[in-house]
Amino acid sequence: MELYLPSKLVLYQKMTSGRLSREEALLAGLAEELGVPVVTASEKMMERARVALDVDCMVAGSVPFILHALRRLGAAVPAHTPYPDVLKPWLHRQVQRRTHLRDVLDDLNKGGRRVFVKPADGWKRFTGFVAESSDLFYFNGASKNTAVWVSDPIEIVSEWRAYVAHGEVLDIRFADHGGDRSVVPDGGVIHAAVAQLVAAGVAPAGFVIDFGVLKSGQTALIEMNDGFSFGAYGGVSARTYWAVAGARWRELMSPK
């Protein structure tokens, strides 16, 4: 398993609690083993350039923390693509991007069908959920101009995450909120989807991709997430997490 060894590891830390999250703790522990210096900082410290940073560092943490780091380093913010076109055969549902949340709210006000809604930019303006009314409370006060993904609701029996670096599926782990652990996905489907991404030339160097087993027994794509900020589900090793995050960070610092 290839591991990127940076000159320094810069980790996000909530200064109020003084603790690292599960993901950052995994990286910090492995950094000590690998002899990589570790620096911790808050989101504001990163935004206000109160922590030293250069392209030879590796940065890990929350999405806002990473975005501040990318902007400081002059790197492009990658587009959020949870449903790549090449993976449509594995969706097993209709998914559409809507330019404005207001269009979804208007449909609901007119008695339209319930739909699953999530922000299209991927930065968690609100947590995706099945919307049955236009009450903005459930959308966490998001602007009606917010771009969103809208899809048919599906019944997921169990959810799993594949950790991928350089086109290789390193591990598949049960999601922390994943339902019935005894119901396992079709590994062949997951590997075929990853192979399709690689063949199409649209796979980041590091990413995670979530699949669910439907009530019908089919293994369906839930969403794909970029490898610059993602969750470590129970049981995933520090080396696997580092391999994915490091591969993607190195790619972001070395654009083609």
Please explain how this structure is put together.
The chain is α+β, with helices and mostly antiparallel strands and 256 residues long. The chain has three domains: 8-72; 85-89 and 154-227, D-amino Acid Aminotransferase, Chain A, domain 1 (2-Layer Sandwich), CATH 3.30.470; 94-151, Dna Ligase, domain 1, CATH 3.30.1490. The protein is built from six helices and eleven strands. The strands form three sheets. The protein has a four-stranded antiparallel beta sheet with strand order 4-7-5-6, with helices on one face. Strands 9-8-10-11 form a four-stranded antiparallel beta sheet. A three-stranded parallel beta sheet has the order 2-1-3, sandwiched between helices. Helix 1 (22-34) packs across helix 6. It is globular. The model has no long low-confidence stretch (mean pLDDT 91).
Short characterization:
It contains six helices and eleven strands.
Overall residue-averaged pLDDT value: 91
Q: What general outline do the C-alpha atoms trace?
A: globular
DSSP summary, beta strand count? 11
End-to-end separation in angstroms reads: 23 Å
| Largest sheet composition | 4 strands, antiparallel
Oligomer: single chain
* The CATH fourth-level homologous superfamily of the largest domain: ATP-grasp fold, B domain
- Secondary-structure element series: EHEHEHEHEEEEEHEEH
Can you count the helices? 6
Q: Which sequence of strands runs across the widest sheet?
A: 4-7-5-6
Q: Say what the CATH topology of the largest domain is.
A: D-amino Acid Aminotransferase, Chain A, domain 1
Radius of gyration: 19 Å
Provide the helix percentage.
25-40%
Estimate nothing, just give the exact number of structural domains. Answer: 3
Q: Which CATH top level class of the largest domain fits?
A: Alpha Beta
Class from helix and strand fractions: alpha+beta
Low-pLDDT parts are none
Amount of beta strand: 25-35%
Per CATH, the architecture of the largest domain is 2-Layer Sandwich
